[in-house]
Amino acid sequence: MGIAVNGIDIDDRVIDAEIGHHQQADNPLMQAVHEVVLRQVLLDEARRLGITEGSDDDRIEALFAREVTVPEADEESCLRYYLAHAERFRSGDLVEARHILFQVTPSAPLELLRQTADAILAALQAQPERFAELAAQYSNCPSGAIGGSLGQLARGQCVPEFDELLFRLQPGELAGRLLETRFGLHIVQAQRRVDGEVIPFATVRTQIADQLRRQAWQRALHQYLHLLVGRADIAGVALEGTSSPLVQ
Questions:
Q1: pTM (2 decimals)?
Q2: Residue 81 lies in a domain
Q3: 60-80: b or e for each residue (b if 16 or more CB lie within 10 Å)?
Q4: Could you tell me the end-to-end alpha-carbon distance of the chain, in angstroms, rounded to an integer?
């Protein structure tokens, strides 16, 4: 492919061997190229700094440990995060919910489905008491047979986008928009809500500190990789340093 890093040609066979690890990517070949090139950039930097012991992965880890360091999150930062994300630090929240699912199928493409779902949502906004009737008529979920009822749901039981919408709704509130998930389009209504307990800051302080440190480390790592990529002589491909699974 004519790719070189700091004057060293990248063997096509190395890229071919890497492709198998990226079959879920939008462009497996390009992802494999980026991975191989970035790894070579990192190994070159490790060698320049005298890090030569162990396997390739060992040398890259040693390079990160030496060059990418972040301070521990202090008490003030942790408390600020806790207060800003109070909804995440509750246990036992439950919402009784119901929905109408419009499932995308080859015979019911998304736009046609959206038109139907929008019409049903408008009908429910005008006559909310028809929810069970319309769920039985239109929902592609087995819950349609019982008025669309999903029972009581705890946080994390549903896909994230459903969770996020549901736990923002007030008891009895019908979502004012359609929700799109991998299952299709949903009309969602919250019914009875049971609030859980607030988890004390002291209980989650260590968890928050770990999360803030991971976030800070990832930002620092991305900056470091951009620096190395910008400094390297890379021929044959334009490389974005943060596109690699190495930095996820």
A1: 0.58
A2: no
A3: bebbbeebbeeeebeeebbee
A4: 26
Angle (CA) 157 162 167, round 5°: 80
Q: Cβ distance 147 to 128 under 8 Å?
A: no
Residues 95 and 194 in one domain: yes
Q: Tens digit of pLDDT for each residue in 141-200?
A: 999 999 999 999 998 899 999 999 999 999 999 999 999 999 999 999 999 998 888 999
Q: Please indicate, yes or no, whether residues 99 and 192 belong to a single structural domain of this protein.
A: yes
Convert the chain into a string of H (helix), E (strand) and C (coil).
CCCEECCEECCHHHHHHHHHHHCCCCCHHHHHHHHHHHHHHHHHHHHHCCCCCCCHHHHHHHHHHHHCCCCCCCHHHHHHHHHHCHHHCEECCEEEEEEEEECCECCECHHHHHHHHHHHHHHHHHCHHHHHHHHHHHCCCHHHHHCCEEEEEECCCCCHHHHHHHCCCCCCCECCCCEEECCEEEEEEEEEEECCEECCHHHHHHHHHHHHHHHHHHHHHHHHHHHHHHHCCEECCCCCHHHCHHHC
Range of the domain at 208: 4-72+204-247
Looking from the CA of 194 toward its CB, the CA atoms found within 13 Å total: 10
Q: How many CA atoms lie within 13 A of 210 on its CB side?
A: 4
Q: Is residue 211 part of a domain?
A: yes
Asked if residue 84 is part of any domain, the answer here is no
